[in-house]
């Protein structure tokens, strides 16, 4: 017995020692991949020594003798800090995620291949200006120089993720950067999902479905069932075309995820310091590391500083010595679904204007980690590639015997968007910026500009040329065999939508449709936010940097301010006082809180929680009886719809009546029932004391690591979870997950914020949502996350002396042969 006990002790000690040895070994190899910011490296591809000066926040300031050397160093700096992220973004664009992630990433790869993201990127390389091609080559050489350093110095494979996801790191190519830009464009637009939603609403509620999605004054939508006789409303197959949020972010970006931003500026005559101000905050899914990376480049045209995306050699939002710019995704309808009829008895042919036509067909092999390679057949028509029914909800609106194809402006090979972005960095005034931006194709953007003489905005990007007799106007899928529905090409956004010298000296954009955009887009989801932003910046005659920061971090919900007085008009203080502990008293207490609330979506208050739960329950109660299973897929609030119903615009109050019940319910009854249902759910979660509830208890920002975020144990290290203020409609946007037990989990937001002051350029401020490094063991992995949550910033200067004075490390690059 004693002997057995001794052996058990020895085995236990041995297992502990082996575990410790494994942990130490793993830690050692992971630490090896942390870059030395004070190192000196001899590299091929530069003509003279280059310095990368790192600030205390790990922001690189790059100084070189030539622009080529500077872009080379930017590629090296991106690779030092974000190599795994860069390779994953490239794989997402190439359709090769399943090679490292396995079967779960196969649908994403399938869609990327069918969209032709990487193929079209390669085709557009030669369309760039020669100088831009040289920039792309220099940047690629810089990325590859760091990959060589990893191999030569045994630097832990460059990132710890590569030990868990075996990957031969291919050298970077110029087309890789173009592919990531196209992936960004595909991710920024949601037009396919909107078309599918409109078609499903037409099928589920032909008479009133338009109430949910139509813009004010928009003509009636066509009846989808009349376009395709025999089409029936169907519910999606769960688990096929509704991937969970983490799966959707496997490549950091994914087609049709959507993006937004705020961009606003004030001319010098409207500022206290006598110089123009500009603020910008692109809003994307929250990941760890975040999508953005701060950098400063010293180019021949002058210093440039701001936000970059690893893999793209451009400052997408920032300033140089004379010009500041910010980007906002524009709601141009840049995608159309066409429904093609397949020839009965011959799946290789489809109906064309001249009769049955053969699909253009090719096969591609998708390699899958841990499984056999998958062969897919890619088919195309004259309108674009065939998108299978399993993607983007297309199967729910597809008639029998038909397939769906996609036309998209980003699929055109002559895409000079990278030339536009590189030129923007070097532009010295608004007119020069507007001129180079006319090269933009995808994504479509509203670009806010500011220089010493004023401010302005320019709408850029390709616009589909649809015939005026198009059957749906691009609002929903149309028959592809009818010539009048087909695109007649693409063209730049109308020049008349550019305003480089507004009389007010103020410009603002949020992604909502702007005046004059009629016919270019059909989405008005950001209208309330745009109204709130204009109110804030027009209510002051004179602005300062601090007032712009306050506006950028504003957490007042204009939707709450608009809807609560309307929905609760006949509920406020209209009942006799009820006994404590009764449902009636709970409702009265909730209404009392909301009646005195200013709409601020503070994480410390209970009112935002009551409001969002009430509106979610209200919308569901309004549409459930009419839309059936479609109601399960409405993961966002449609405030214009609720406003239309409670104002009874064009008879929309009919939505308040429950079809299946004999009585005719009023909107006040539905509002009361929805509030009671919401309160019951919240009491079950947090108890009956309303005053103790906190919005931040459910509204928590989840910055998820796409590769490691779902791994037990590791997820606690790599994911960042923070309570946050704001909501879907606030200027400080904090979008909701929309599904599951906690639909108010914060999953999108301003992953980059910048406020640029041209009166005192060195006081311009910047922040990103996590940190500069993508290495979970780096102190710079999350060192900006808390600042970001609190609405704080870091100062970045174009003064070389200040950069060197605050240097936390200086990397020296020496040309080989010196």
TrEMBL record:
Its cofactor is Ca(2+). One of its GO terms (molecular function) is hydrolase activity, acting on carbon-nitrogen (but not peptide) bonds, in linear amides. Keywords: Calcium, Hydrolase, Membrane, Metal-binding, Transmembrane, Transmembrane helix, Zymogen. The keyword Metal-binding applies. Ca(2+) binds at residues 195, 333, 336. Binds 1 Ca(2+) ion per dimer. The chain crosses the membrane at residues 7-30. One of its GO terms (biological process) is antibiotic biosynthetic process. Gene3D superfamilies: 1.10.1400.10, 2.30.120.10, Glutamine Phosphoribosylpyrophosphate, subunit 1, domain 1 (3.60.20.10), Penicillin Amidohydrolase, domain 1 (1.10.439.10). Belongs to the peptidase S45 family. This is Penicillin acylase. It comes from Paracoccus kondratievae.
